[in-house]
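Let's study a protein:

___
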Amino acid sequence: MSPAKSSAAARDADPVGGAQSIFRVLRILKYVGAAPARGVGLTDVARDLGLTPPTAHRMLSALLQEGFLALNPKLKTYSLGRESYILGLAAESRHGIKAIAESAVLRLAESTGDTSFLSVRSGHEAVCVDRKTGDFPIKILTLEVGHRRPLGVGAGSLALLAFLPNDDIERVLARYDASAAPDLPSTAMLREDIAAARKQGYALNPGRIIPDMLGVGVPVYDREQHVVAALSVAAIRSRLSGARLQEVVAALQRAATELGAELAPRPA
């Protein structure tokens, strides 16, 4: 083995430590948190996060030992554990946007008959924090609570990105990797979607994820006009076109204005 390979192997075998390892562990937590209910396996974590199996196993084991992950003994898959749940409850008590927005998300689902979502930004990603379904027989359930998408991918995610200051948008686009998944739009497509959203005043996902599904989203602003969340509605294509699209947009904008007022801190 060459000295370089020997050195790399030695580093990989070192106990978890240092800033790089911390970032890796946090990425694992985010990855597992966005996984389906059945959880994810060691091979998935190693492959998708660019880790060697020994490194992935060591970090998963540490998170398992501390209670941040749980292991399904039959499937050999990992999901979020008790300590992650406790941290989530603590965060919810301090940043309880889901509780404040829940009635607005429910009203949107009831009034439109379709699926409504609440999304917030997490770094260069959008996270779905609430979802309600309407009474229309065909449900759009492509996004579950806790799932993450790159900013700009999906109606709510696009609303979070498109209405940021220009410098923030450019920083996000500089980190965007369309090759990370086969169904991601190109950077050029995202720029077109951003421009259209700014012109229209709302974000439209024109079937980028599923061709027969459309989504429309609007930003939620705080008192200082910072984008703090996004509300969106998804439906089959025939239900989000023409006059009905404008009706849904109007309902979203009313809900976003009301929610923004609720989220705004009261003057001292």
